[in-house]
Amino acid sequence: MVNRKIPLTPQSIVEQRSEGMEIMKLYASCLILFAPRWLRRLWCIVGIAWLTAIIVSPPVQASQPNGALLKAEVVRMTASAACRSHPSIGRQDFLERVRIRRITYASDGLPVGGFLIEPLVPGEYPAIIYNRGGYGEFGALAPDVRLLQLADLAAEGYVVVASQYRGTAGAPGQDEFGGADIADVLNLIPLLESMDNVDASRIGMMGHSRGGLMTYLALARTTRIKAAVILAGAADLAGSLDRRPEMARVYEKAIDASGAQLASELRKRSAVNWADKLPKDVPLLLVHGTADWRVPPTDSIRMASLLLEHRVPFRLMLLGGDDHGLTGHPVELCTQTRRWFDRYL
């Protein structure tokens, strides 16, 4: 079982300060009545210093609304020769046409990290929420080829935003692998709504691996997404344990459960169990490599069958011999992704 820390929120800080002041008052009363003169003088000096620190310290801010942008810093990236020659990246000047920022935004009272990539040319653009794969620091976004690929997509006329999820990159909270942390994805919607250069009526979503799982979960909870692309998406966590039993430790840590309770939580996170809850008006592009051993292609094949049964519009692309990272067909993958969003956003 995992011992979870209670998030340090402005409200909890205020409560702790109030309790501290009451204790100080009680302690001061005892000193006045019983302490020798030298100790009372020392207490006066300490008390004055403590009150001065309280007065000059910045006021505690109220909790920010979900999606509020708390911090943003520009990330300077240069595409190395290897990245520039990567087949999935288009024109060589794409970095000159976008602004990349590392952001912190409010999600359920927590400061959560992420990245925001915008075209530099003024205008109103459709947006894409990207859901990363992995768990915790494994798979966390960084200024690397993945971010360059998102920047290349943004250069084609999209505002792209991505979350690191709570409990990652220094953020408080617990990454629950599709539990309460799904709010970190959904709370990017009000962030996009607050931006002048975003047409919030045209929001798409894209997820890879565990990010595909997050995409399925988000689609079942909001009507704001107009189209989605799911790359090597996990759709059956319980089934994955038969093939990769070592993942049980990851799930137990993330979900803080074991045995029957863990099995129940895995079913809640697996779209194969509730495909009928997915919206009937959001077209899905499912892409999977046939040689993927981390998330087998049967996850997407089974989802395709269920989507067909429940009349959810979709297209399934199986890339022969490709791996989990879909590195064998980079040009085709990026071309089909752009065409999908261009058509439906």
How is this structure best described in words?
Residues 1-18 and 54-61 have low confidence and may be disordered. The protein folds into two domains: 10-56; 69-344, 3-Layer(aba) Sandwich (Rossmann fold). It has helices at 10-34, 37-56, 81-84, 145-155, 182-186, 188-193, 210-219, 237-243, 247-255, 259-269, 298-309, 330-344; strands at residues 69-74, 98-107, 110-119, 125-131, 159-163, 198-208, 225-231, 284-289, 314-319. It starts with 9 loop residues before the first helix and ends with a helix. It is built from twelve helices and nine strands. The relative contact order is 0.10. The chain has a nine-stranded mixed β-sheet, with helices on both faces. Helices cover 39% and strands 20% of the residues. With 345 residues, it is α/β, with parallel strands linked by helices.
* Poorly predicted tracts of residues: 1-18, 54-61
| CATH fold name of the largest domain | Rossmann fold
Oligomer: single chain
In helices, the fraction of residues equals: 25-40%
Mean pLDDT reading: 87
